[in-house]
Amino acid sequence: MIKSQPLSSHPSLARVRRFIQHGDRFYQLLLIVAALSVLVLVLAIGNELWRNSALSRHAFGWKFLITSTWDPALNNIFGALPFILGTLVTSIIALIVAIPLGVGTAIFLAELAPDWLRTPLGFLVELLAAVPSVVFGLWGLFAFIPVFVRPTSDLLNKTLGFISLFQGPVFGPSRLAAGLLLAVMVFPTITAVSRDVLRAIPNNQREAALALGATRWEAILQVILPYGASGLLGAIILGLGRALGETIAVTMVIGNNLDLSASLLHPGYTMASVIANEFTEATFDLYLNALIEIGLILFITTLLINLLARLLIWRVSRRVKGEVRL
Amino acid sequence: MNNHSVRLRAKRKTVNILMLSLTAVATLLVIAPLLWILGYVIRQGLPAITPQFFTKLPTPVGVAGGGILNSLLGSLMTVGLGLAIAAPIGVLTGLYAATHPDAPLGVFVRFGTDVIAGVPSIVMGIFAYTLIVLPQRHFSAFSGGVVLAFIMLPIIIRTTDEMIRLVPASLREASLSLGAAEWKTTFSVILPAALNGVITGAMLAIARAAGEAAPMLFTAFGNPFLNINFNQPVATLPHTIFVYAISPYNDWHAKAWATALVLITLVLLLNVLARLIIWWRTRLLGSIRG
């Protein structure tokens, strides 16, 4: 377009130049509009959920969070406590299992594994992250529960049944099943982020610890892990965020029951799974609004949790970058 | 050396070996579910895979045969629409983030993208429901495509951003110094150089969106018949798996496994291909820059 203009005073050249400059202005504007879409999306989600939960918010106020009556059939009273507790309990089970295994795997991948093993293993972890949630659910329902969760539940019930957490009767689909399945699903999140955090730690930290006579494990435990602590915490919180919002797999294995007992071996319900189960059955506006309010709680919680996790991870990567530059 | 310090050293060495081995065991336990899932899906799903499975509509319970043509088509429609919406916006946003890394909006975009990626897909589903399904008063493939666009957006933004930043600055500078305008440089030099990477982002986004069942429950809704109208409900692969899996019928369970095999093959192939491209590009461009 501009390759062979013979005369700089040629009138068409000025036109071309003007077009190009205008093009640049238009281009910049286009980029900014696109970039603003992220902001618009977050605000729009918040706004829609807020507006469409108005009936329920006005009817129940803050009591929605702390009452446990969920009665769409007779009295039209809604309280989200059983679902909030169910989400918390399953997420906590998931973290208890996934933190040691996920961070352990990250240590193995970042600190110990030889190069030829590191890449393929990291690849497998990423593939685990790619498995669709509904496939996890299918596997959980027909393979994981009968082969692993049922026997584990029986064992827990027999040995620790006197604690209310493990009291019988033992069901297949249960809070424990959902928690363990969630653990498998958050493995890749915790592992991949922790591995990246550990690999970002400068080598002089390792070398200094080893030079002082520490064993590999002592170097990891006393130097590497504390150095990356806030990043690792970020990885764990990111895993928590994933666990809180996970829907379809949990819906398939938790049993979807408003059981209020403390037992982990009983079926339960979570915020995400009640939305999945009852949304299309919500026959009147207040019912639908109550479900959308649960969605609002879920949205705000995951937003805050992700914000916190990203801040923690960013802090580590910034600090590490600064030190590398020195 | 006295007895005490010899014993202490032996103990430290034992602890060292024990804990290091435990991290290897943890790795095995994390990988094991993947192999278990893949093996199980293949074993349960393969017997039901026949040519008819891809070309026939579902049959009622108890009637032999039947396939998932409606779900395949519905997934194609919703994912295709999602990509058509998310790809242009995502690529432009990624471009902005990559070319303005220190501007306030650039920082915000990168941060906001990470945050959006963490919003549960069921919440995205409610959003699309109140935005489209509620005013229109009917479920539709269109609303399903819009949800998938929201889910794809952060993935496309992030990969575009990373891949554009891998393009050597010298390429951009050379183009600008030849007198090309900023937009001309972007669209005829930088984007072509990063094209593989951007396509990779789209592939990862497709893989993710194709597996989303939760938001489809009240947007695309499901449909046992063949439908190519965006204004009507459609079935999608993950939603069909869900419906078949929670049914009480054995022959539907078999179909759930076969559909899962189709879905997981698609998703993992896209992922493997995408990761290979990323790995190859990072090495290649890294070596040019370094």
Structure, explained:
The complex is a heterodimer of chains A (326) and B (290). By secondary structure, chain A is mainly alpha-helical. Chain A folds into 2 domains: 28 residues; 268 residues, Orthogonal Bundle (MetI-like fold), CATH 1.10.3720.10. Chain A has 13 helices and 2 strands. In chain A, strands 1-2 form a two-stranded antiparallel sheet. In chain A, helix 4 runs parallel beside helix 7, helix 10 runs antiparallel to helix 13 and helix 12 crosses helix 13. The longest helix of chain A has 41 residues. With 290 residues, chain B is an all-alpha fold. Chain B has 2 domains: 46 residues; 239 residues, Orthogonal Bundle (MetI-like fold). In chain B, helix 7 runs antiparallel to helix 8. The longest helix of chain B has 43 residues. The N and C termini of chain B lie far apart (50 Å). The interface between A and B is large, with 93 and 92 residues.
